[in-house]
Amino acid sequence: MASACASRLTPGMASLRSPFLSRSLFSRPISLLPFRGPTRCSSQLSASISTSSFTWDDVLRAACPRYSGDGDGEGDGDDSSDLAGFFEKIRLCNRGSEMQSDFLPFVVEDQIVGYVHHGFADHLRQFDDVFTFDQEGLNGSRFGGRVGLHHLLGTREDRTEAVARVVKCLGRELIPGIRNEHFPVKSSFGGSIIFSLERAAAPYFGIKAYGVHMNGYVEKDGQEYLWIGKRSEVKPTYPGMLDHLVAGGLPHDMACGENLIKECEEEAGIPRIISCGAIPVGAVSYMDIKGYSYKRDVLFCYDLKFPESFTPNNQDGEVESFKLIPVAQVANVIRRTEFFKPNCALVITDFLFRHGYIKPEYVGYLDLLESLRSGDCS
Amino acid sequence: MASACASRLTPGMASLRSPFLSRSLFSRPISLLPFRGPTRCSSQLSASISTSSFTWDDVLRAACPRYSGDGDGEGDGDDSSDLAGFFEKIRLCNRGSEMQSDFLPFVVEDQIVGYVHHGFADHLRQFDDVFTFDQEGLNGSRFGGRVGLHHLLGTREDRTEAVARVVKCLGRELIPGIRNEHFPVKSSFGGSIIFSLERAAAPYFGIKAYGVHMNGYVEKDGQEYLWIGKRSEVKPTYPGMLDHLVAGGLPHDMACGENLIKECEEEAGIPRIISCGAIPVGAVSYMDIKGYSYKRDVLFCYDLKFPESFTPNNQDGEVESFKLIPVAQVANVIRRTEFFKPNCALVITDFLFRHGYIKPEYVGYLDLLESLRSGDCS
After folding, report:
1. How near does any CA of chain A get to the CA of B106, in Å?
2. Distances (CA, A) of A365 to A39, A89, A333, B281, B301
3. ipTM, 2 decimals?
4. Contact assignment for A355 to B281 by CB distance below 8 Å
């Protein structure tokens, strides 16, 4: 709750003043204009995300209410009612909207299930027993045409197998990060599954992907604290960055609630008797275009209130460590740095809205609220 | 929270089986298709809202988990995961979108601040020292043109005074319900105030109106209960219908939080020491066209958790009585009846999402979530 803006850190945390602070990851000043839609990020910004290297000391310094951007140890008028830092983080999730016309709709059973870059489509043309290419324009794509599946692939299983074969042939150079996890392909969350697709290939076919993200929090003496994870330095994606307590993609054969319980066990050692108390609280969405990749993600958000006595314990080696940080200070880290994996910043911003840390009196309140569902949230 | 789906009513509540149940107010079966946008309501539906007459007994019968739609006292398979009744209530707030082209944009200082029906515009034409009518089309209105203010009305005060004079001349027949309360006219919540306008006239000029709505709840033995009000039978709008604990329009000279505290005192006798604990949790919006009226409302939502010992006490005579009802049973009343003032149903549905009573596993989850902000929420 809003009144939980604690000015102290959890006892036992390290000093807030690290002389080794990686300044390059702190946010640059940006325009105060409210967010009006996705914009393309500079390559410098992207580079800073993929080469992240910071410590918990850096995080705690940025979290500090008396934070000084210029390093002189004095507060510099940095204002928690200034939403600019939040808008910037939303933009990190929503890049490249101006490139949408470079993509062809991927249409199966008369439903648009995805979008394929015309350059990636050129790689698919050799598989003419799997993919079809109509010249007829659809939805104003500047290249006209659409991608489809061969009419002989009439069943879900046939399609799954044929596309999997193509993904394998294209190889890891074109589609990196193959995980052998299957995502359902459908036009909307409630729609029927048209086929299943390797998770790593989903953005190359512009498939909607769904996930579950959970904010784990604790209430102590009327103040709220969030459990924050720091990703392993050896994770292939976003190594070393800050993360939620629990998050995961939604496989094709599992309901949201069940998947969350599974991820709770794997990622933070949370037993079912606790995780079954997680509360679904809404969803956020974004669309992110970069090169051939068109991510269209919808994340179902959950809150789980923990007893003070609980300590998370990563089971799968993907998290380096966890810390419990006052919510208002987590908000500072989001505003001031790029330490968080971008979509986690989005889900935590949703938490900040629902728990009263972002107020209608702050300039840009409604624009920021709307921007949390910038992608097709269906 | 979701696990708070109590099956019992607050002790002391009246019998659930009223032989005088007003069945006409119970929802008719509707299509299970997810909400895809505003549709026009039947006049029968509107009539049932304006002629509401039901008792708390009727409410409690509809709230009952073992509710039987056919009155035989047996459960009829009515399913809390069926969101159709919620979609229907969202539609009640979002009527007449197909009539948008009957309205001319109302443009002041190069910003669209509202929309005026061409029929209402004809009444304004006689005031040619106040209103201007450009023929140039804007935004595809089928009548072309736009309404503006005379260039000699250069200040906020001049505009406020001139338009107030017109509203007075047009009279209560054209603009009923004059309250002598002023609303700010601006293009978005954060924009500058262009002038101020009588609250009752706002929908005739299609001005965006902002309000604050608060859900007051209590947690007892791990279960959540909502305080529900029943409006006075002599209120000019929605007499006798169910309402939140506290709600009010946002005047031009007050911040959201301050306005809420004022309304808490007036509507439910909640002292500032309690009401200052209300948490802002987001916003909902809708657009509703009927005749010359074009409502574009944005409601800032608040939650306030009360101690068990607190009992609300209406101060201004606008509420007949309050009852404390388990949240899951309030959800039943919204799904099954039209007892709630429509925009209150919207705000409570938002509460149901945030507190886990509506789950991702329910068909239509994302569509219903999106529909809570069907209007321009800026």
Report:
1. 22
2. 19, 15, 19, 11, 13
3. 0.84
4. yes
